[in-house]
Amino acid sequence: MAGLLLAVIYLAFISLGLPDSLLGAAWPAMYQDLDVPISGAGIVSMIIASGTVTSSLLSDRLTRAFGTGVITAVSVGITAAALFGFSISHSFVALCLWAVPYGLGAGGVDAALNNYVAIHYASRHMSWLHCMWGIGVTTGPIIMGHCLASGSSWNSGYGIISLLQVGLTAILVCSLPLWQKRPAEKEQRADGGKDRQILPLRELIRLPGVLEVMICYFCYCSVENSAMLWASSYLHLEKGVALETASAMTGMFCLGIALGRGINGFIAMRLSDKQMVRMGLCILSAGVFVLFLPAGSDAAVAGFVLIGLGCAPVYPCLMHATPAHFGIERSQAVIGLQMAAAHLGVCIMPPLFGVIARHFSVSLLPWYLFGLLALMIYMNERLNKKVKERNTGRAKSF
Description:
Distance between the termini: 40 Å
Order of helices and strands: HHHHHHHHHHHHHHHHHH
Number of helices: 18
Helix content: over 70%
Strand content: under 5%
Shape: globular
Mean pLDDT: 83
Largest sheet: none
Low-confidence stretches: 183-195
């Protein structure tokens, strides 16, 4: 049963990834169709991220009240409904309204499943879990690119993903008994519901390393989503790639994430979470460097693929280390904060680059990614230092 439950969790993360890159892949066609500025993608992305931040902050209470399985099924169902709303929308205002449940659904499943896997499974499973997200996020632009290339509208792409989400929701609902058969889940809910104290937000942030890891996630998701949202526009407007090809090429960045996380699952059997994160940051740096090279579109695509490969281990390995860094009893709350910080980055930074692209040039994207990456590397090293100091202090107390 444990293996079947893990397969269901993997499917849930495919569903989480499917819609994540659609907006960036479709936006070069969407903003012309809707007659809005190119920076309008940032507004929709900001609304989605705001909903995700909200549901992430509530994840600790909701998961203890209803259980991981119920939260996952309901969240995917909400996302399916929001995607259907996108598929029938023909105005920018309608997109903004449907973006609210879009974000609320994504945040609930993300925080709940990340904590569940961090506690119950080895690091390799966290990497493979996020590889499933990578498969989903790679598939989305491919479907959208095919729809645009065949002469269909971007609405059709959203409609297809909506139907896939409905099917995944049905599977998740049927899997609910599997969650109840997991003893650790029952113990976690019982302990959390009665004995575990909920720390106020300001006390959680004061824990050594929490602020640093929140900034890491803010920067990471800012890099990942800025690349995901603007890669297509960068390739089309700066490198002269055809619209349909640029939309599909966004999937190459996502493919880099998916392949990287599949490989990282095996590497994680040999390396620690800390080593995996550092390795990813080095590869990510190489990808950003390639974007600075005065070369053509092929080099730019290669740079985005490298950025994807570098992103691959950072998110899941930092996530898997959360119970070890802050304790199992605090992991769900801290993961909720990490998710909130991550999606706050999604909320602010990709839209901010949209403003920069509108008033200056989309060619500044490599510099934008470089600044965020530098801050992330610095904060990751501060996190490692504080965790080491705390562990050394504990050892001395014994």
